[in-house]
Structures are given as C-alpha cells and as structure tokens.
C-alpha cells in the first residue's frame, strides 16, 4: 500500500512536470511539495522466510526528526537481530508497536510526517516496478490505507485483536475474507484449543524469537532417522594446555575454554570424513560435500538457544577460534547475533557439559547430517596400561547422524579420530 500511495504521487509530479501550462505546472508541483504528508513505514520483507519479528528496541519516539538511514528500531526474528533504518527524512508521528510486541512483515511499524516526498516517493516507485503511466491522477488520496471487508469479518478480527492491515487479503480488490482471518489466526496462534481450564491457574507464554525457530527446526528434525553413537574421552591433556596459557590469554582479553580444541579437532577429523561436513538435499537426494568447515555452536543465551557458526575453521588456529567464539558469546548475550553468523552452518557441536550431563541424544539440524554433544568433564577412576587405578578427567561425547545417508561405522571412525585429536592436542597446535 505504501508503494501504491507513493507511485501515485510520483505520477502527479510527472503529469504536472509534463504540463504545457507553466503556471499550472508550478502550482501543481509546489502545492504537492510543500504540504506535509503522513506516510506509513512498513516492515519490509527481510528474507529467509521470516513472517514476523519481535520489537526489541526503539531508537526513536514520536516527535523525533530523523534522516534517511538513521536507526529506527531493533527487531529480532526467530533467527537473528536486525536494525531497521529509515528510508526517509522526516518527523516520527506514531509508533504502532511496544517493546516485545510481535510485528508481522508488511505491517505498519510507524507513521512518518514528510515535508518533501519527492525523493522517498520516487525511490519507492522505482522499487515497485509499476508502470506510472497506468495511473489516473484523480485516484490520488493521502488518506490512511483502508481495508475492505464485511462487518462480520471486522467483528471476528476485533474479537481476536487482529489489525485488518496485518492480514493477507485474498478477496477481490484486496478484500479481507473470513478465511483470511482464520488463516492469519492459525499462523500466529499456538493451538487455540489448548486453554487453561477455569478450575486451574497459570499463565500463557507466547513462543517467540529463538524459541519459535527451535520449534520449526526441531519439528523438521523429527523426520530424520537418528543414529546415535557415544564414547568417552580423556581430556587431561586439553586441560593441561588450557591451564598453561589461559591466564596469559586473559590478559589479551581472550577467554580460552576447551571448546576451541573440540572445534578444531572436529575440523581436522572432517578433513578425513568430508561426507559428514555436508548438506542433504532431500528433493534431489544428493549430498553436497562442503569444503568450508562452518562449525555451528549451540549457545545458551538470555533469549534462548541460538546456533551461530564459526566460519572456515579449517583455516583457523585455536587462538583464532577462541577469539571468534568470544565474539559470538558477547553478541549472543546482547541478542545481537547477525544473520551472517547463523547462516551456512555445515556441522554442529553442542557443549551442554557447561551445565552438566553425561550422555545425550543431540538432534540434527537439517540439512546438516551430523551433530555432536559433550557432557561434563569429571575426574573419574580409570585403569592405566599397568592395571593401576588412576584419576582421569573424562568427558563423554555423543554423536547423532542422519542414518539415511551416514552409516554407523563412519560415525564411529570419525569419533575415534576426533577423540585422538582431543587426547593428543599437540597435533591441533602445529597447524592452522
Ligand atoms: N565440562 C566441564 N567444564 C566445562 C565444559 C565441560 N564440558 N565445558 C566448559 N567448561 C568450563 C569452561 O572451561 C569454563 O571454565 P572456567 O570457568 O574455568 O573458565 C566454564 O565451564 C564456562 O565455559 P563457557 O564460558 O560456557 O565457555 P565454553 O567455551 O566452554 O562454551 C558455549 C561456550 C557457547 C558452548 C556455552 O557457553 C554454552 O552456551 N553451552 C550450552 C549449549 C547448549 O545450550 N546446548 C544445548 C543445546 S539443546
């Protein structure tokens, strides 16, 4: 609707500009230029199939004067955070969402008051790719957008607290039908039949942000037959190396944990088993083996679980991996992980051992074909080569692989190699 409004305005300017009568032309153009106009600023499509976002922060308030490209607000989708910037110079009139409200793509985020519409309108018209010549000048209105529907449909929308402008209309001339409201309700609601009975008390919590993404990916994962393989690993050496250097690295503001060793060990083992650093295309039944080891790290953040990745681990040192992990943890704690950081993961690791646990069954994230999870490292009694009982720091590792394309022996061999690198970390230190 913003576009249709915009290109109609451009049409007026162009018609006026083309007019032979110079006075009429001057009047048309100048009255158009100098009147202040209110225009809606919509949440445009941010790709990746995202249908809604949660408003996390407003950087503006009504009455603020902003310039093109100024930050307007921070929104969070089920995948990452995005800063929305202004497309116009103008005055903020009305904000339509509060912090933590969910905004649908295409809905109006705020209204702008604009002095000089020409640039903004011309831009929008260009983007809309609509032939300006098809528009009649008398159709121009600057009213707020009006949505066509019947009183019965409006009542259903009101009862369900739905703005008609947020609903995708499928009726004639953009009319919102009852089916559109029902489809919209289905999209935005958790199963409406699950209600807390009046005999009980409790509260309803909306699923949003990262949790909503988890719902989608995990539901898809249910279709994958998981082959699960677990083993234990001696982490004495890794602990020794880490303890030797962690204080000096801390002085350089780098926190070195066990994770960079585990990540690098995975990358080195993947060099031998490239079929595990792969995406499965279910449609074509092809496996795409990837040269980039973009290793995803399951991360517990104040906003829930998110899995950013460290790109091209095959080329990174343990130090560089630690730096990157620190950066992602910092961004995760501020809910500001970018799309780039969550895109193109080829392999995933989950260290739930920071909290506890021994063995687990991690869940594969499609289209990847394997995931690993670590339990908590603990000092446990084990036999040495002479049969003496000695204390050893033991950590469990559990792998889940997509059994449609990966057989158990491959997983076991890969796990053995990963374990070899972790138990002999010197091999990880001498190459990038
Ligand atoms: N066993 C014992 N101790 C462990 C450990 C393990 N498996 N993993 C980490 N630790 C220790 C670290 O060495 C560090 O010790 P320190 O206090 O002496 O420095 C401490 O626990 C905290 O480590 P942390 O800061 O969390 O860093 P990390 O690099 O080990 O882990 C993440 C980073 C992102 C993986 C971790 O913070 C995290 O979010 N884990 C949860 C993952 C998750 O949610 N998985 C479930 C998915 S469904």
How large, in whole angstroms, is the Cα Rg? 28 Å
- Into which percent range does the helicity of residues fall? 25-40%
Q: Please, how many domains?
A: 3
CATH architecture of the largest domain: 2-Layer Sandwich
| Low-pLDDT segments, ≥5 res | 1-34, 128-144
Q: Kindly, what is the distance between the CA atoms of the first and last residues, rounded to a whole number of angstroms?
A: 53 Å
Q: What is the typical, i.e. mean, pLDDT?
A: 84
Q: Main β-sheet: number of strands, strand sense, barrel status?
A: 7 strands, mixed
* Secondary structure category: alpha+beta
**CATH level-3 fold name of the largest domain:** Chloramphenicol Acetyltransferase
Count of DSSP strands = 19
Oligomeric nature of the chains: single chain
Q: Quickly name the level 1 CATH class of the largest domain.
A: Alpha Beta
Number of helical elements: 12
Percent strand: 15-25%
Bound molecules: coenzyme A
Report the CATH superfamily of the largest domain.
Chloramphenicol acetyltransferase-like domain
Short description:
This protein is an alpha+beta fold and 432 residues long.
What keywords describe this structure?
432 residues; alpha+beta; OB fold (Dihydrolipoamide Acetyltransferase, E2P); Dihydrolipoamide Transferase; Chloramphenicol Acetyltransferase; 3 domains; 7-stranded mixed β-sheet; 4-stranded antiparallel β-sheet; 19 strands; 33% helix; disordered N terminus; binds coenzyme A; 2-oxoacid_DH_E2_comp
């Amino acid at each position: 609707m913003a576009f249709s409004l915009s290109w109609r305005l451009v049409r007026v300017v162009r018609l006026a500009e083309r007019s032979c009568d110079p006075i009429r032309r001057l009047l048309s153009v100048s009255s158009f230029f100098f009147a202040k106009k209110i225009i809606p600023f919509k949440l445009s499509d941010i790709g990746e199939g995202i249908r809604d976002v949660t408003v996390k922060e407003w950087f503006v308030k009504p009455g603020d004067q902003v310039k093109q490209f100024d930050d307007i607000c921070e929104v969070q989708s089920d995948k990452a955070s995005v800063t929305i910037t202004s497309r116009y110079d103008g005055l903020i009139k009305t904000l339509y969402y509060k912090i933590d409200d969910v905004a649908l793509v295409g809905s109006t985020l705020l209204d702008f008051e604009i002095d000089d519409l020409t640039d903004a309108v011309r831009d929008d018209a260009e983007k809309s790719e609509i032939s300006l010549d098809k528009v009649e000048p008398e159709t121009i209105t600057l009213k707020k957008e009006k949505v066509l529907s019947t009183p019965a449909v409006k009542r259903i929308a009101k009862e369900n607290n739905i703005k008609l402008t947020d609903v995708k209309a499928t009726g004639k001339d953009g009319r919102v039908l009852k089916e559109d409201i029902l489809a919209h309700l289905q999209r935005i609601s958790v199963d409406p039949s699950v209600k807390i009975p009046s005999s009980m008390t409790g509260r309803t919590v909306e699923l949003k942000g990262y949790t909503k993404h988890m719902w989608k990916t995990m539901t898809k994962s249910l279709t994958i037959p998981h082959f699960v393989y677990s083993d234990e690993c001696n982490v004495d050496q890794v602990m020794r190396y880490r303890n030797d250097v962690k204080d000096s690295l801390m002085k350089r503001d780098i926190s070195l944990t066990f994770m960079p060793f585990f990540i690098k060990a995975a990358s080195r083992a993947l060099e031998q088993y490239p079929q595990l650093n792969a995406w499965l295309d279910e449609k074509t039944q092809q496996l795409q083996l990837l040269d980039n080891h973009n290793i995803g790290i399951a991360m517990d953040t104040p906003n829930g679980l998110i899995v950013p990745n460290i790109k091209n681990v095959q080329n990174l040192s343990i130090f560089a991996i630690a730096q990157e992990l620190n950066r992602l943890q910092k961004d995760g704690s501020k809910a500001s992980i970018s799309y780039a950081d969550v895109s193109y993961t080829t392999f995933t690791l989950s260290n739930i051992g920071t909290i506890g646990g021994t063995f687990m069954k991690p869940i594969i994230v499609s289209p990847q074909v394997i995931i690993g999870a670590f339990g908590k490292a603990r000092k446990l009694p084990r036999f040495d080569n002479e049969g003496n009982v000695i204390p050893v720091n033991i950590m469990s590792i559990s792998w889940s692989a997509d059994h449609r394309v990966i057989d158990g022996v491959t997983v076991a061999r890969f796990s053995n190699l990963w374990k070899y690198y972790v138990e002999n970390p010197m091999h990880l230190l001498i190459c990038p």
